[in-house]
Design brief:
The protein is of the alpha+beta class and 160 residues long. Helix content is 29%, strand content 23%. The chain is built from 5 helices and 9 strands.
């Protein structure tokens, strides 16, 4: 059986509520540049907070390559709004409260520490045509994404 959201395949469509209160779809950025889609397990947890700080602190790299960054969690948009404000994030956090997007990307735990339906820590780079160019999904929520590989995939996707 093939995993969801494989490299070289079209990225699964989504439209989710953002931390700013807007509805955001994947396709909005097509034709403009790559998209980095990050799934984080739970808001306000130490590893997730660290991950988003790393991306925030290196945000110029992404914007310099016309790349949109989206963080996604199963938390509510209201929780994500407070978290984004506290971290002063320059990118949107999206609420996958119904867990459909994480599932379509193969990034949903059946159970994590007694909690059901938590997003796995995952990262995808999607090119301007909507094709997945990089996929990383961790079975260990304590492991940060390989940012060097994400950046290399962004550079490659931006060059095409």
């Amino acid at each position: 059986m093939s995993l969801a959201a494989e490299i070289g395949e079209p990225a699964p469509h989504f439209e989710l509520n953002s931390s700013s209160g807007d509805s955001v779809s994947l396709e909005e950025h097509f034709g403009k540049g790559p998209t980095v889609l990050l799934f984080v397990p739970l808001a306000f947890t130490p590893v997730c907070t660290n991950e988003l700080r790393i991306v925030r602190d290196d945000f110029d790299f992404y914007t310099g390559l016309s790349t949109r960054v989206l963080g996604t969690s199963v938390d509510s948009q209201y929780t994500l709004k407070i978290w984004a404000e506290q971290l002063k994030l320059p990118f949107e956090l999206l609420s996958d409260f119904n867990k459909e997007t994480a599932a379509s990307y193969g990034a949903l735990y059946e159970e994590l520490g007694g909690l059901r339906g938590v997003a796995k820590r995952a990262a995808f780079v999607i090119d301007k045509d909507g094709i997945i160019r990089f996929r990383w999904v961790s079975e260990d929520a304590s492991v940060l994404p390989p940012f060097d590989k994400i950046k290399a995939a962004v550079e490659e996707a931006a060059a095409t």
